[in-house]
Amino acid sequence: MRQMRRYSGMSRDAEVIVLARWSDEVMEPLTRDDPERTWRGRFVPIAGQWGYTFGWALEFEKMRARKGLLKHLESLPWPHPPTVQVLLRDQDDDCFGLWMFHGDRLVEVTIPGTERFHAPAPPNEDFEPDPGMLLRTDQGHALPEQTPEAQRDTRPPW
To answer: Could you tell me the superkingdom of the organism this chain comes from (predicted)?
Structure first.
């Protein structure tokens, strides 16, 4: 049975991929470092075989470095919000999770054969919010016990 992390440490690798049609202008400022942002890092364009950018990728190595990323992405003037897909994979996830716009918010879309398992909330806000683990449920492996919703950390980890 997989063990849930309790009160995550500061170091946590994660990858983010943003896919969005016709969004070069929107994403261009995010390809540069900006100390004013709540999250740290910069996206790298992903080009297809004909040289057109179709996505952007970013890697995080610290949990604090990603705080506020989804809120920032929600605030951008996307030319076609229904085409925006954000793929997030934390180091303990079996696969990428998918976030898409629902109204004006990016929300995680349930992927068949997966479930996000959450650890209980930490004792205080000195600990960073934990995204939980997105695990495949269709592989025959033992899964951790799910934390009841009332006992989870309600702060956004991204």
So the answer is: Bacteria
